[in-house]
Structures are given as structure tokens and as C-alpha cells.
Predict the 3D structure of the following.
Amino acid sequence: MKTIAVIGGGITGVTTAYALARRGLRVTLLERHRYPAMETSFANGGQLSASNAEVWNHSATVAKGLKWMLRKDAPLLLNPKPSWHKLSWLAEFIAAMPDYRENTIAIAKLAVAAREHLFSWAEEERIEFDLKRAGILHIYRDRADFEHGEDVSLLLAQGGVRRRTVTLDEMRAIEPTLAGDYYAGHYTDSDSSGDIHKFTTGLALAAQRLGVRMCFGQQVVGLSADARGACVTVLRDGVPDIGVYDGVVVCAGTASRELAAMLGDRVNVYPVKGYSITVHLDDDASRAAAPTVSLEDDAAKLVASRLGGDRFRVAGTAEFNGFNRDIRADRIAPLVDWVRQRFPGVSTRNITPWAGLRPMMPNLMPRVGPGRLPCVFYNTGHGHLGWTLSAATADLIATTVEANLRSVAQRTAVPLKMA
């Protein structure tokens, strides 16, 4: 039986390990934290949102980013301090702008494919994760943003996502608790929301039942590979330990760039920081005033999701500031203010702030496929749609790993002919 190391215990690593185990491969998952889903998969916006498949490589995004550079509370914030990593990423981001339409459609198709896998896995493994299949409502405050949204809806339709236009009255009917003035909206009834941490933890337990060996508290510090396999060096209680595998899949989020370099590959993932708050609905009035439908506010670049009966998650913003994980008060404040303005009946007395680093490729397309060597594979760089896309990319990479390793085994099994 072939042995595979999966590096990373977030949503992409856990789904990848699970998909590989379902194919009968012997899988070891390596994660530096004590538990799965402790970084970017811990407290995201909670959306499974094919309707949010639009890539960011658009002139409007660049214009807004330049306009917001001097605002500390801006939805998109770029630290002007230069670094080669940041500059190379931004250059490739701009170079990918001609592919905006094609990539948006491709992401939409991938998100639709992911739904089937994720829901079937959750049902089969009986994973409870506050799933709410009530759709996602996109809200717009002015005509210009709404009309751009109309163009996006046409692209999403080509990818199999039906997002319909709704009037202000229809918006009120879909989410009666929403306050404020709006121009119009879009509603995607096939989208969903839930708790990514609960889902990932539940799927990790399911993967263990399938035989996946979970190795937590182990930092990968060395990687090497050749045509025969891969060597992975981890620190276990401060002591180096080397494991040898037939193949390795890098699912390490923002750490993927450094790990790929060890293997001779270039994976230009950049850490784009996002923030969230979890609003604890401690009283009946707050529970009644909180939304039940997941939302996306286009102008504020925020999303919101109800998590069960007593929690409400608001997340968003994009901060280009390297590997800085600080939870800044001036970045959390706009999220709290948004709740007060849009849902004034919700108490914000008890909130939990969080920040995580989204692993983004310059074209916002995840890196899914083989590396330079036949035993090296990648499933990383999912950006703001990690949970939405994870089940599909896990299935794709598991299929690729299985096929490639079978091909390698067949080639090496052929006896050499004597001259």
C-alpha cells in the first residue's frame, strides 16, 4: 500500500487526507498545532459561497485599493513597506487581470462541484457543524456596485451558479432583521453557511476512522524528494524525526511557499489577513434580532453568518501585511460598528475577535496538482474560498495522486532489457 504524507491540518489538509484514505492509500497527516483547524480554518466567515466566486483581478479592485491606502479602517489595506514577496505577488496579480472572466467561471464551477462532495461526506460521517441551507443574500448600497454585481451574476451563471436579482422589498422578506438603506440585492438560494472549525474537526475524526494517522504538534522543518519518494523532517518535542513516504501533498496554507521552495517548486502564496468577530447572542432580544440568512455586504467587504442559535459571525477585510497575525483594535472596530448599524437589536457586549492569514495565489486560483517531481503534489492557495472549494480540490488531488503513483509503480516494475 502506498504511503502519503499530507502537510497541514486545516480544511484543505483534512479534506485531502480524507479523500486519499477513501481511495485506500495509507495517509499520515502532519500538523504543527495540537489540534486540526487552528489557523485560517478556525473562525472564518462561515460561508459555503459559490456566489462569491468572483476573483479579485479586476480594475475596480485595484482602484479601490489605491483609494483606501491611507484609511486604517479600509476594507482592503496594503502596507506600503516593500518586500520582494509582496511586489512579485502584486505584479502577478495585475498580470492575471486579462483572465478575470475565465477564472471567475472556473472557480464557480469548482464551487458547485464541491457542494456535492461536502454535503455527502457530512451526511455519511454524521458531522454536525451548524449547517444552514438558507442561501446567501448580497446587498448593495448604490447602483454602480449593483450593476457590477449584475455582470458578475452573468459570469456565475456560466459556471452553474444561479444568483437572482432581488428588490429592496424582497430583501426585507428574505432577511427581515436587516436595517439600513440599500439599492437592491442578489440572492443565491443554493449557498449555505456553517462552522468551518466544527466541520474540519468532525472530518478529521472521520479520517482517523478510515486509518489516517494524525500527527499533531509536529512542525515540518525539512523536505526533500526524488523519483523514489519523499523525506519529511519534523520537530517532535524539539527532536528532529525523518519520515519516508511514497508521496507528499503540501496543504500548508501560507507556509506552502517556503515548503515548495525546499522541493524546487515555486508556489507564490501570499498571506492576506482577514478578521472576524463572533457575536455571542446571550439574550432573547439579540437572538431575535440577529439574521438567519447569510449575508455579504459588497461595499463593506464583509460577510455574516448565523451559527446555531446563540452565535453570529461577521468576517472580512483584506490586509496585505506579510505574516503579521496581530488582532488590531482599529480593524475589529468596523466589524462591530457594522453589526450595530445593520442589526441594532443585537448586543455587542460579548464578542470574540480573531484574525487569520488567507493563503492566496496571485490569480486567486488554487494550486492543485503535481510538482516538479513525480511524488510531490500541491493543494493550496485557496484564498477566501478555502472551505467553499476544499471538497472538490481534495477529490481532484486525490485522483491525481492515485493515478501518478500507479503510473510510477508501473514504470519501475518494468524489468530492464539486456543490450
About this structure: Residues 413-419 have pLDDT under 50 and may be disordered.
